[in-house]
Design brief:
The protein is mainly beta and 385 residues long. Helix content is 6%, strand content 38%. The protein has one domain: Neuraminidase, CATH 2.120.10.30. It is built from four helices and 27 strands. The longest helix is centred in the last third of the chain and has 7 residues, at 282-288.
Length: 385
């Protein structure tokens, strides 16, 4: 994608974190440090392109670790409180040794590069039957200041079926809670299922399989969800905040835009279908759809961000995403639900010294510039050559 000033897009490796890195973020009050989440239960700081030797947080003794590359166990998500500069609070999502999803609050010490692991306050605890489709992402709403938490739905071969359509539990949903009031939290009064019998009031939207990463468009508060599915289709759900509120994204009635049971009819009434999908089996895709290199392929979508920085004007408003399995990167712009898909891989390959292999996550700094976290440790930033 040629930039309007004649420069070209590239990725620059800014640091190498330990293996099993899965997310990068930055508190609103701090433009000089980046925080890298590690699946083993550690958080590292990048300062001046150097990974500090001592972790910001180490709760390795509390997280479930595994050698299975398909497992989403361990530490999964992190979000700084919007008022972190004053209260020093941040939140993490991890799977503990008893196979439960834990969302906890921690506090920083007087040394801003070190957190106090003994300040843990558990906010929510959810059993995880399969340790694979657990979601994991955390984010504070940019307009309401509430905490949004992605929770996956166990596999269909697990005895807990149809969870994402059962609103008596939290599986397969993004929940929205107020961590500044209540003990340990309270329910925002405008949540869609408040005061409805047999529906969990925490739920903001539902019908998701494994919403590994979601994000807010900082310009208009749209919510974009990259949902890793079970069999055949990866999907992107991009809707306004109002459209997302109470939305049913279809799992496990549908997978992508298709009936989950491909041999039977499914009722799609009131289901919010994805804006984009792609098959998660490359050979299937090439045989039946004849997609070229411009199209998407892979097996596990890594949701990203709508670019709102100032350094790459041609990317303004483009949603950048990738696939964990093949390291490919794409972008598209939404315009009245019509969009043009760009394959960024070819240009990035030509202009970058190296590229990520396994895209665990994208990240966004306070200025809206974007990063990529390779599961093997390298951290990349989008730049212009």
């Amino acid at each position: 994608m040629q930039l309007i000033n004649g420069e070209e897009l590239a990725l620059k490796k800014i640091a190498t974190a330990p293996e099993k890195s899965i997310y990068i973020t930055q508190p609103l009050s701090d433009n000089n440090r980046l925080f890298v989440l590690n699946q083993r239960g550690l958080i590292y700081i990048i300062k001046n392109r150097v990974i500090l030797k001592k972790p910001f947080l180490n709760i390795n003794d509390r997280v479930h670790s595994t050698l299975n590359p398909k497992s989403r166990s361990g530490m999964l998500g992190m979000a700084f409180h919007p008022n972190y500069k004053k209260n020093g609070f941040f939140f993490v999502h991890y799977i503990n040794k008893n196979n439960k999803s834990i969302v906890s609050r921690f506090s920083v010490t007087n040394n801003k590069d070190i957190a106090d692991k003994n300040t843990e306050k558990i906010i929510i605890k959810i059993p995880q039957p399969d340790k694979i489709n657990v979601g994991g992402h955390l984010a504070f709403g940019p307009e309401d200041g509430f905490l949004y938490i992605a929770i996956g739905s166990p596999n269909q071969n697990n005895k807990e079926k149809n969870n994402a359509q059962d609103l008596t539990n939290l599986y397969g949903s993004i929940i929205r809670i107020n961590v500044d009031q209540g003990e340990p939290y309270s329910i925002p009064k405008d949540n869609p299922f408040v005061n409805e019998y047999y529906k969990r009031p925490e739920i903001f939207c539902f019908g998701l399989k494994n919403p590994w990463r979601f994000s807010f468009d900082r310009k208009n508060n749209d919510i974009i969800i990259g949902d890793i599915n079970e069999k055949s289709w990866e999907e992107i759900n991009w809707n306004s905040w109002a459209e997302s509120k109470g939305a049913n994204f279809g799992w496990d009635i549908m997978e992508g835009k298709h009936c989950y049971d491909e041999e039977s009819f499914c009722d799609t009434t009131n289901l919010k279908q994805p804006i984009y999908e792609y098959p998660n089996n490359v050979s299937y895709m090439r045989k039946f759809i004849n997609m070229g290199h411009q199209e998407t392929s892979g097996c596990a979508i890594t949701g990203g961000y709508v670019y709102r920085g100032v350094k790459h004007l041609s990317l303004q408003g483009a949603y950048i995403f990738g696939d964990y399995c093949n390291g490919r990167i794409w972008a598209f712009k939404k315009n009245n639900n019509i969009f043009n898909l760009y394959n960024l891989q070819e240009e990035l390959k030509d202009k970058s010294k190296s590229l990520p292999i396994s895209i665990a996550s994208f990240g966004e700094d306070n200025s809206g510039e974007l990063y990529i976290v390779d599961y093997m440790g390298p951290i990349y930033k989008f730049i212009s050559n």
